[in-house]
Amino acid sequence: MKFMSIKEAMKKGSGKVAVRGWVWRERGSNKVKFIVLRDSSGIIQCVITRETIGDQLFEVADKIQVETSMAIEGRIKKDSRAPTGYEIEADSFGIIGESHTYPITKDQSREFLDENRHLWIRSRKMTAIMKVRSTFMTARDEFFKKKGFYRFDPPILQPNQCEGGSTLFEVKYYNNKTYLSQSWQLYAEAAVFALERVYDSAPTFRAEKSKTSRHLSEFWMVEMEAAWMDLHEVSEFAKEELKYVISRVIEENEEELKFLGQDVEKLKRIVKKKWPTIKYREALKILKEKENMDVPFGKDLRTIEEDRLMKHFDTPVVVTHYPKEIMAFYKPSDPANKDEALCFDMLAPEGYGEIVGGSQRSTDIEEMRKALEKEGEDIKNYEWYFDLRRYGSVPHSGYGIGAERVIAWICKLDNIKDAIAFPRTMLRWKP
Questions:
Q1: Which domains does the chain have, with CATH numbers?
Q2: pLDDT of residue 211
Q3: Count of C-beta atoms within a 10 Å radius of residue 45
Q4: In terms of Cα–Cα distance, which of 358, 302, 356 is closest to 327?
């Protein structure tokens, strides 16, 4: 028979089927063997009886262990006692690949599961998360194509910092040294003078000495850059993008979201609501009046301030006009208030923190030069970037979304490490 996925077999509902996959659970007696088989589409209970397949083959079935790969032919029927409401009565089966005693069992530590990540990604939890991640990434392509953007891929090895020299990963490059990308931004800014509207998804590296559940040393930044956009336009565009991709995840992965414990109806309501925009100074006022937190102007919002602020919102919130003095060199001052930068962060509710960061880009070479000198940077490394302002500069803006942070929020994860297949952190660089 032609093999079909478990999901297709359950959709068929009755009659002869042939499925293949891996053993998720197994139990039995000397007369019957219950196998819960999994593939990428789902799980189904299969029943192998001594009476049907004979003594010799049943002895083989009796030795099957978790994660054995196998093919099963039989008759599918509804059964309310089965884990997914369907059961296959096996007429025959074949072992594809034997499994030794599988090391992953119930209630194992975070460290053990990360150490055995190559096996843990087979779990139903990780499979569900990776499906959501796949939809998230694909939906971005759909969104930007509809908006007339071009995909633009930057170099990963870069000579410059754009988010702070202290978080750079240095790389030996023949007889020189270079760095792993902190962002595509500087190169995307070059691209908008040719293509006007560009986007990308690319690995990003930050050597942050952090061991929290919110940080990764290697993550995927999904970014955009557009000529002619100002701060208001780009921050509203970020809201539109996220609403689109969340809607697509709900449409494609409702089953996975429910399995992960997410309230799908709540997500639907969030997508339909208006997401507010407030200024940094307004955020400080909310913290003082409602949380009794006296945060001085000029201090960046830490995790604790973000969490306390977001207690008063049930949707993502855009916070604009952070203090210029603590912002990256390319974020310009607001002409109306020189101590404020034309920038924004988007914060997610329920303690998930910053998920988007963006800004209008400075076109003032002298202002950027002074900021870089203050950081101790070698200005010569940025002359190519200043050329973008010397030859036909135009207003432009962009932002970066931390893919894992958004996926963690959508999937209601406790730890951002589960939002990526193989996490890289300060203490983990393998498997």
A1: 6-97 (2.40.50.140), 114-419 (3.30.930.10)
A2: 76
A3: 19
A4: 358
